[in-house]
Specification:
mainly beta, 13-stranded mixed beta sheet, 6 helices, 34 strands
């Protein structure tokens, strides 16, 4: 009775309690006892392990991801009690977004959990991910740091019995050196772990004190907190019951989210998917290591020094006892393996993509329920350093600064920004409230801003600033807006993103009087064309945009509208790109309902439509353009290119009848990781050939 009353009192104070209820306490006790046994029934096993490593790029954790690299590895694995592991690599293949991005990633250390987890959890198993191993929630004494709550259950029909898997949510009661938060699925009858989904947090997760002083500890905490803003580690480890007796590793999904919180705000997920098949359990065969490892040595290697692609053997000691060894033939031999059951695509299979997404979303909700200071939230910080410098024909050089603050509501960040133009003296303050959650993105933005008027231009980008500063080509028309708008963005599947906005703003014309101070380097006079006027007024604005990406093609379509000051104007527009080997085809087009609202018209001329012409050489209520490009040696980092473009903008009745703009040119494209830099020379030809030779310095994300 006394014990029951104690459990009841504990349940009344959930933040400080250990167990949510009596059932949770009993199940955790069974699971803790099972964890301590370490399942000695399995003395050894052999298995075929297939792993896929993906690197992608996204605007945020929950936005659409653009795949960059995919590599797949096949290995024979031999594990023996208590904790010895031998991995023999037998096959490898890769794919990447471009040939400049190498996909021959060699795995030369254990990258998966070979058996059950001990009292310390570290991913990847033999690496320093994280640097300090986390305390397992079922380890002896772990209740000092964790609280537990049963949240779900699932019945699984097996040949001999009904397995009841119960979900236990685990979260820290207080912050420790290295802990986890997540969900553990446990077999109610035996206490075996069926599945473990987790992420890491802690004071010394990524850095440990060098000494015993308070300054050492404080420095390590600061370094770890800074690293935690950049790296977040998640794992989803699933076991399966083999021979109706042994719970063995089955699938493992591990993600390292590498975040850039200061410049771009982008995230680079590095994702491992590993599956275990063809098990042979308790064979009785000892592991025969190829490399001797002395007692005093923690790691050793034999590497073919004649080539970085040569054969190698690496061995080392495991943190929790035992040793490991990875033997690998040359990369040429691995890539010659031809018995893959399918072809390797750059995109993940939809089911695997869904699994990674579900884990990220589930753990994100768990993390949002934890205190802000544990998760590195709540402190104001500077952000978006990539927006510090801008240059255009309206403001000249402009300087901006943005501060970010997460006040407490789940997934919500407040941004305060200001920009000042050195030429026009215009001050542009803005505030944005952004909720970036698994369900989608909400953003409320208000204030004063300089905005593009054309849907195909990128005047506010750093790429346009550099081109305008050095070559005198500012490829955008601008207006000043003052007001507020709300934007909603959601994913449809994993390759289509919808964005809808609505708001009210005052729109004003703005003059341009800046000069390109470096333009004389490219035979210019430094004068930038004037910025054309718009129809001033206060308008309700709305619009919808849909972006799609598929292998070898991408596309965007949109509709915009604005209403007020006695007008109702709208436009529809779209663009698409297709590529095959050295060839790339790009098409754009659109139409507007009013010819007397300049900010709603469409423009032909410039890098995104017809190269060889100034931006907006032709303006009209209808527009079309096509770009054809050929790259010599597309597999090389430096690619000579040639291109030919055509397009027109005019009234509906004239857009296909009037003489089009035609431009030709060439240049050099240099690819670095996911960014392509270009230096091009282009010239107008045909009936509209009165513009001089044009030089551009451009950069953009690869595809």
């Amino acid at each position: 009775m006394i014990g029951e009353l104690a459990l009841l009192v504990t349940a009344i104070a959930p933040q400080d309690s250990i167990y949510a209820d009596r059932a949770t306490a009993e199940l955790v006790s069974v699971a803790r006892q099972r964890h301590a046994e370490l399942d000695t029934a399995v003395h050894d096993y052999r298995a075929l392990v297939r792993s896929r490593l993906d690197v992608a790029l996204g605007r945020s954790r929950f936005a659409r991801l653009f795949p960059l690299i995919a590599t797949e590895h096949l290995a024979r694995v031999h594990w023996a009690y208590p904790n010895d592991l031998k991995i023999d690599m037998i096959g490898q293949r890769g794919a990447s977004i471009s040939r400049e991005v190498r996909a021959d990633v060699r795995l030369d250390r254990p990258w998966f959990i070979a058996r059950g987890l001990g009292d310390s959890i570290r991913l990847i198993e033999d690496g320093e991910v994280p640097e300090r191993a986390a305390l397992h929630p079922f380890a002896a004494g772990a209740e000092e740091y964790y609280r537990y709550a049963i949240t779900d259950s699932l019945g699984i029909r097996l040949p001999e019995r009904l397995l009841m898997a119960v979900a236990i949510d685990v979260a820290p009661r207080r912050l420790g050196p290295s802990l986890i938060a997540g969900r553990i699925w446990v077999d109610r009858a035996t206490g075996d772990v069926v599945r473990l989904t987790l992420f890491f947090l802690g004071e010394y997760l990524w850095s440990q004190p060098d000494g015993q002083t308070a300054d050492d500890s404080s420095k390590a905490r600061r370094e770890s907190e800074l690293a935690a803003r950049v790296v977040r580690v998640e794992a989803d480890i699933e076991y399966a019951l083999f021979e109706q007796r042994y719970w063995m590793p089955f699938t493992q999904f591990i993600t390292l989210h590498i975040h850039d919180p200061w410049i771009t705000g982008a995230i680079l997920p590095v994702r491992f998917r590993t599956t275990f098949n063809e098990y042979e359990i308790n064979t009785g065969q000892p592991i025969r290591f190829a490399l001797a490892l002395e007692d005093s040595v923690t790691e050793a290697a034999e590497v073919d020094s004649s080539s970085e692609r040569g054969a190698q053997v690496r061995a080392g000691r495991r943190p929790d006892g035992g040793r490991w060894e990875v033997t690998s033939p040359s990369l040429d031999s691995l890539e010659a393996y031809s018995e893959w059951p399918d072809s390797l695509a750059l995109d993940l299979e939809p089911g695997d993509e869904r699994r990674f997404r579900d884990v990220t979303e589930e753990l994100a909700h768990i993390g949002e329920d934890l205190p802000n200071d544990w998760m590195g939230r709540g402190r104001p910080r500077l952000a978006q350093f990539g927006d510090i410098f801008r240059y255009n024909r309206v403001q000249g050089v402009s300087l901006g600064l943005t501060g970010a603050w997460q006040p407490g509501p789940a997934f919500t960040t407040v941004y305060l920004s200001a920009r000042y133009g050195l030429t026009d003296g215009r001050f542009l303050p803005q505030v944005a409230i952004r909720r970036d959650a698994p369900s989608g993105l909400w953003e409320l933005r208000g204030g004063r801003a300089l905005a593009d008027v054309d849907p195909f231009s990128s005047g506010m980008s750093l790429a346009n600033s550099v081109n305008a500063l050095f070559t005198g080509h500012d490829d955008a028309d601008y207006m000043v807006t003052q007001g507020a708008r709300v934007t909603r963005s959601i994913m449809s599947g994993w390759d289509v993103e919808w964005s809808v906005h609505a708001g009210f703003e005052e729109q004003k014309s703005v003059q341009g009087n800046a000069r390109s101070i470096f333009h004389d380097l490219f035979f210019g006079d430094g004068d930038l064309p004037p910025n054309p006027p718009i129809r001033n007024g206060s308008y309700a604005v709305t619009g919808i945009k849909v972006d799609g990406r598929h292998p070898f093609k991408s596309w965007t379509v949109g509709v915009d509208g604005q209403f007020g000051e006695g007008i109702e104007a709208s436009r529809a527009w779209g663009r698409a790109s297709f590529w095959a080997g050295p060839l790339r085809l790009g098409v754009v087009g659109g139409a507007a309902t009013r010819n007397d609202v300049p900010q709603m018209l469409l423009r032909a001329g410039g890098p995104s439509t017809v190269r060889g012409y100034h931006f907006g050489t032709k303006v009209g209520e209808a527009m079309w353009a096509a770009q054809l490009e050929f790259a010599f040696r597309p597999e090389r980092t430096v690619q000579p290119i040639v291109f030919a473009d055509a397009g027109n903008a005019a009234r509906f009745s004239e857009v296909f009848r009037a003489s089009p703009l035609i431009g030709v040119g060439g240049g050099v494209a240099f690819s670095l990781l996911i960014t392509e830099f270009r230096a091009t020379i282009s010239k107008s030809v045909g009936a509209n050939h009165d513009q001089p030779v044009r030089v551009d310095l451009l950069f953009r994300a690869v595809r």
